TrEMBL record:
This is Peptide chain release factor H. Belongs to the prokaryotic/mitochondrial release factor family. Residues 221-231 have a biased composition (Basic and acidic residues). Residues 119-135 form the Prokaryotic-type class I peptide chain release factors domain. Gene3D superfamilies: 3.30.160.20, 3.30.70.1660.
Length: 231
């Protein structure tokens, strides 16, 4: 199944921008669910004010992801009065929605895992039993290891070791993703304010559709032609 990782961020924006991130997140996840895609939130950084979000990172899975994300990726503008500074004159606030470059996802294959049976030991070095029931499992592509001695049954310990090793490898991958997110965060601190891909307005956060005026475009074209002839 195809997947992408998306970051919605206020960059260095003030609390108003963090409020916009929180509102966009709700709107975005609602569209994700309505489209039949699935998601999981990998990381969420709260803003200073209640109900605000500085940055959130989401993994989205499903078909036709590019078609869904195209109208979302870029700068998003909110037109409205500050919810924290009512007398603030600024009316335009900007946040960014970006795709995070992913590291290659590892599918743990059991054939790449080696299991070593070792003797379980108790307190003071005493043997719990006389057979080699403990299991050390090693995933060779990453070097991750786990040691399991929960049971007197070697077979049961091997089963537990396999599950824990998969969890450990998955956790390592998640940490790598978070590092990539942190690195890319540095590149998104300054949100581009030109040509927003989506515009919302008001405290009810309604989407504003851009109106294209062909009359205005024709008038501008005529003006450009006249200026060109004068030169």
């Amino acid at each position: 199944m195809k997947q992408k990782i998306i970051q919605i961020t206020a960059g260095r924006g003030p609390s108003e921008c963090c409020w916009v991130v929180a509102q966009v997140l709700k709107y975005f996840l609602n569209e994700v669910k309505n489209t039949g895609l699935t998601y999981s939130i990998l990381q969420r950084e709260k803003g200073f004010e209640n109900g605000t979000v500085q940055s959130v990172t989401i993994r989205i899975q499903g078909e036709k992801l590019d078609l869904f994300l195209t109208p979302w990726l870029g700068t998003i503008q909110w037109i409205g009065t500050s919810t924290f500074r009512k007398h603030h004159k600024r009316k335009n606030w900007f946040i960014g929605v970006y795709e995070v470059t992913q590291t290659k996802t590892i599918e743990v294959q059991e054939k790449e895992i080696s299991f070593q049976a070792i003797r379980s030991s108790g307190p003071g070095g005493q043997n719990v039993n006389k057979v080699n029931s403990a299991i050390r499992a090693t995933y060779h592509p990453t070097g991750d290891q786990v040691l399991v001695m929960d049971s007197r049954s070697q077979h049961q310990n091997k089963k537990i070791a396999l599950q824990r090793l998969k969890e450990k490898v998955n956790q390592s991958q998640l940490e790598n993703i978070k590092k990539v997110i942190t690195d890319q965060w540095e590149n998104h601190l300054h949100i581009e304010r030109g040509q927003p891909i989506r515009i919302f307005k008001g405290t009810d956060f309604k989407k504003q559709h851009k109106k294209h005026s062909y009359t205005t475009n024709r008038q501008q074209l005529k003006k450009d032609v006249r200026n060109e002839l004068k030169n």
